[in-house]
């Protein structure tokens, strides 16, 4: 049995670990476009900030490939897939056959057309360690940095370099920061916090055109900068999958076993669509935990096991300049809100289940909420008034508590 | 109104050790401890302290101790502080003083004035680790002629018996006076130990029927929870005529405690007072007792031994003689130091006689009358150690009852505040948050440990005497010597003085 | 110093016994020679013998052997005996003056039968009547002590080493089908003749080596049934127990052994159900008659001997056989001394009675 | 394998487990020195209301979502014990967002997370919460066979 894995991040690694849970000996070949040992992509901003090192960023220990008997092929990009011949073709014209294939090709930065951008020499995206290394080389205490995009990537980048540059300006077309994960009030709170930490934010605006060191905004403002970071968004890497004739919508389409439309080909991670339990929709959930769990699920199935991943939900945890926020699920239905000077809580619930939440500041035990979303715990089976105040197991029924803390391990309630 | 009382005890906190974890505060049902937010430290109100040591025991840094207050009245050998304080209390309330557990006063403790023999030279001591050492005991009548079948073989028919692995039983404590968990601890320990516990006059909770083979069901003057199934549920039936802590006094469990399972188990309506009359109103004399004994035997088809429990009072020997002829299988005698959940202080402290003297005179009397085999004798009322057990058996007892010692092993610190219902150790309380403090897994294990430890010690002492079976110790008064006792005391105890 | 009856005196001892299963006569000399070997097991403060089948001519009559301290005691006692019995024969017991035995009391022997009217008036069976009379003499008549009261048997005892006691009583002039002997090593006694062993009541006689730890439990129990343990010795109470269980309760000697040296509960537990119930019954019913502490005893009874050790076998006891004779002794040497060529010799297990009876 | 189980029936809400945990992981030899005057940050927490109380710490799930969610690989499961490598941890708190028991806490002083590691990384030898529980409400026992 030969397994071929495309991708060396969370989904690819998860897949390899999933395979090894079931099949200790099958051949695994793992192709990575990048040259590095597997590393954690979200850590690049921490690296810039000096909170981690290249060594610490390794997602798995040095002996990982060896221990798991994985043939690791770094700097090797898979250019095409032949689902009929069950082979993949790599850059140098070499073909490698597979019995089961995992596509964990991730995503790439999305750059909308911006006139004059080609004139900007010091221009970076912020997706990979290479991006970060390139950026790092240009940082000076005097640097004026323009970041286009006030989403997760843009803001983490801002935090990562804040202490190392002179000025940071973030521009976003949206009227608030982190629009994909925060509601208005939360955004406002973060915005205030960013401002307090020296980040200039220009919202509801966008770059009309660039010169080498200036950006003219639609509003007419002009921003002078030394370095440009574009973090407008990402797009899944689906080209090879599409060429191979696999079903692809926004991302590669899979079933709950992470199998694509070709029974020998699986896909996981940022390049796929998931069934979001909280919203009930198919969407791209470009999140590391999600990628790992999809990959692991796929790996188990590829090796002949039986695993279903039907618990996908959006889930984010991040800190910005010491202020932590965790969010999960979708924001629909009724809302319970509580705001204090330095914290914010918002719970969304609908049709007897918790749909989503936003916590800023006090994030302790947030996973209890997350699990309620994931498990679709009926709110009438818990003391929701208590839960609104604090995420606590005591709000669950006696039987449920007993299950959670006094049995061998928690068995998920049987639904239906 | 002036409060004349100064706290008996003072809570002493070592501020250098206190980490303000507030365990003391959470554990004190009397609310003696609190956290002073402003000062940022723990404070204590000694006037609320009953000296139960719950806080002391749970304080993780050992920052607490309770000391006797040195606040004092002017010295007076006659009007002691206790007497004066009692007068203040009564002058303020107009009520009978209530207290609990056993008589705490400085009367002679005869067990402590009796010494045990050991073998030297002429007779070898026996090592219980190497040789069999038997503590198994049967309780019940040993009368009846030997009968044989036509081939001359003995027909091994005996009156109903109780078999004990060690001659120790847990004395009567009702469900109500002590908690569900305390009862469960006793029942489970009795089962594991191969001994018996006693329901007391509170009926038998459904959950504990499974321990029937190790249960004595009690029939007392209130007849709470008594019906045919109850009588048949245990291994023996005890008629409680009296109790050492309060001879001549009945019982009163206030209606506030008659809730839920307690009401159900006692078979009386919730909220009604459970009043046990001072006498059984169907027993005004010995012949009435005989009728009750046989009523119970009839009801239980003569399968269960009937115990008659009496308090040790002045003419205990004559009473016991009457009981021994009443059809009862076992007499339980309760000494004046026996414990209780609540008794009038004056009764507890002034009525009854020591169990050692009662036992010696009853055993001698029954032997003089040639009726010692009619009954087994069980004694209680402050058996405090394995040495007390050995001495009691050598004086003539078949087995002992322990209750205070059992409660101590469950955590009781003899604060003697049972009547308040706020037992911090989860024993003498029905408050759920306090009851749960006594985990029967732990409680039963501690009881098992205690009795096992005593058993080992009994075996050591027996081995020292060259006795390897407990029946050879029973009534073996030559193994005892008195110390510091006068002729009369020695005569009653039937022992010689040390050195004789 | 206090003597037996006023204080309990522990003692170590030597015991020996011989029986002919054929009922053939054995000269008293043999038992004297046997006990002589174990000289060091006694200290000269007591020795004695019991012979069975020694009075064939008076075998229907109770033979009372009595010590008198004074003539007054003898007169008072004889008046008592006259009132309760028909006296067939009376005499001093023949003795031989030897230097080793001194301070002898008056030693008399009476062959008697209960007075028929007295017996009928008492509403007691004959043996009980005789036993009660013996107790009365021994407790109520100062200076008189009946130390042997069986039929066709007799106890001979004195203060001294047993071999000297045998010579003193001229035992070579007696023949019987069984004999027991005792050499005493009391730790504290002025030496009172009555305190020597064997101890006997009616036909039961006991020689005993050991010190029982259950003494007071046994004694206080026995006293409930009218046995007054006036001597406070183990042998006395064991004799009474055997008398009580065998004569009054009708237990066989095996059953008696199951009571006084009852098997351990752990042993009983392993027995077949019926046996378990029987042993449990006996042990429980007569719990206060379990004898603990070291003992080896030889019980003499009509037509038999029983040897029994305590359950832990804390005292030595061996049994030898040669033809129809069975020998029982504290030490093998005491058997070899009179029968060097044995067919068989063994040590009985603790608690297991060895009962030898004369073939009928 | 042996696991920590909590039986709320016997929890007496004394909170000693929290203090014993904080002490065990303090590295100090005296509880007074370790805990006096500090706000404790135990890895076990007692939840309570006026009727019920119980302690919650990491269940060391066989299929741990926290480990799967960890973005750095700092959380790992070995021999059934889930532990955190604070050298690798960057304090993103994704695990806190994922743990269904709320059993992982921020260690704000170090900017990482902390969790129960069954006292395998301190000198306690056995879980301090279990050892110090006065009522057997927290036990450390083998139950796998029973299931």
Question: Care to describe what's here?
Answer:
- The complex is a heterotetramer of chains A (416), B (500), C (360) and D (147).
- Chain A has 416 residues and is of the alpha/beta class.
- Chain A has helices at residues 10-22, 44-49, 64-67, 129-138, 152-161, 184-196, 239-243, 288-302, 366-375, 384-389, 398-406; strands spanning 2-6, 27-31, 70-73, 78-82, 87-90, 95-97, 100-103, 107-110, 123-125, 144-148, 167-171, 199-202, 207-210, 214-217, 222-224, 227-230, 233-236, 265-267, 274-276, 281-283, 315-320, 323-329, 334-339, 344-350, 353-360.
- Chain A has three domains: 2-106 and 237-302, FAD/NAD(P)-binding domain, CATH 3.50.50.60; 111-233, FAD/NAD(P)-binding domain, CATH 3.50.50; 322-406, FAD/NAD-linked reductase, C-terminal dimerisation domain (Enolase-like, domain 1, 2-Layer Sandwich).
- In chain A, strands 3-2-1-7-18 form a five-stranded parallel beta sheet. Chain A has a five-stranded parallel beta sheet with strand order 9-16-10-11-12.
- In chain A, α1 packs parallel to α8.
- Chain C is α+β, with helices and mostly antiparallel strands.
- Chain C has one domain (11-243, 296-357): Aminohydrolase, N-terminal nucleophile (Ntn) domain (Glutamine Phosphoribosylpyrophosphate, subunit 1, domain 1, 4-Layer Sandwich), CATH 3.60.20.10.
- Helices cover 30% and strands 29% of the residues of chain C.
- Chain C has helices spanning 28-37, 71-84, 116-122, 126-140, 162-168, 215-223, 234-248, 253-260, 265-269, 273-285, 332-336, and strands spanning 11-20, 26-27, 47-52, 62-68, 85-92, 106-114, 144-148, 153-158, 175-176, 178-186, 199-201, 204-210, 295-301, 304-309, 318-322, 325-329, 344-346, 354-357.
- Chain C has a seven-stranded antiparallel beta sheet with strand order 8-3-10-1-16-15-17.
- Chain D has 147 residues and is α+β, with helices and mostly antiparallel strands.
- Chain D has two domains: 1-57 and 121-147, no CATH class; 62-115, 2-Layer Sandwich (Alpha-Beta Plaits), CATH 3.30.70.20.
- Chain D is globular and about 40 Å long.
- Chains in contact: A-D, B-C, B-D.
Short summary:
The complex is a heterotetramer of chains A (416), B (500), C (360) and D (147). Chain A is an alpha/beta fold and 416 residues long. In chain A, 24% of the residues lie in helices and 27% in strands.
What composes the largest sheet of chain C?
Answer: 7 strands, antiparallel
The CATH architecture of chain C: 4-Layer Sandwich
**Which fold does the CATH topology of chain C refer to?**
Glutamine Phosphoribosylpyrophosphate, subunit 1, domain 1
**Widest β-sheet, arrangement of strands of chain A:** 3-2-1-7-18
User: Separation of termini of chain C?
Assistant: 48 Å
Query: What is the CA-based Rg of chain A, rounded?
Result: 22 Å
Sheet with most strands of chain A: 5 strands, parallel
Helical content of chain A (DSSP H or I, runs of 4+): 10-25%
- CATH-level-2 architecture of the largest domain in chain A: 3-Layer(bba) Sandwich
CATH superfamily of the largest domain in chain A: FAD/NAD(P)-binding domain
- The total domain count of chain A is 3
Averaged pLDDT of chain A: 94
- Low-confidence blocks of residues of chain C: none
